[in-house]
Amino acid sequence: MEPPMPVNLSVKTVPDDTVQRLRRRAERHHRSLQGELMAILEDAVREPASLSPMDILKEVRGLGLATPSEAASMVREARNGR
Predict the structure, then answer these.
(1) What is the pLDDT of residue 16?
(2) H or E, element range at 13
(3) Half-sphere CA count of 27, side-chain side, radius 13 A
(4) Would you kindly state where each structural domain of the chain is located, as residue ranges?
(5) With contact defined as beta carbons under 8 Å apart, do 75 and 67 qualify?
(6) CA 52, CA 46: separation in Å to the nearest integer?
């Protein structure tokens, strides 16, 4: 079986402001506009990595969000403080 042929995609009538922001983003990443668009597309369709429950908990805590048990403790504390 032959490998699939690359497909050319085209996005029409992109607002100037969006194009300028894409150009600045490409420059920050040391890429051409084409390279930046390819990176954005690849990132958008990448399958999410499987995270363990501990990995998810670390991410939640890193965001400063409460886990269900922490949230329950917060609610209890708030009720007792009334």
Answers:
(1) 97
(2) none
(3) 6
(4) 16-45, 50-82
(5) no
(6) 18
Please report where in the chains the tokens 């597309």 appear, as a residue: 41
Residue type, 45: V
Q: Which two tokens stand for residue 80?
A: 């007792």
Q: How many residues does the chain have?
A: 82
List, in order, residues 6 or more apart from 32 with CB less than 8 Å away: 26
- 12-70 pLDDT per residue, tens: 999 999 999 999 999 999 999 999 999 999 989 988 778 888 888 888 788 776 678 87
Residue pair 53/46 in contact (Cβ under 8 Å)? The answer is no
Please name which of 6, 47, 2, 41 lies closest in space to residue 22, comparing C-alpha atoms: 41
Of 64 and 9, the one with more pLDDT = 9
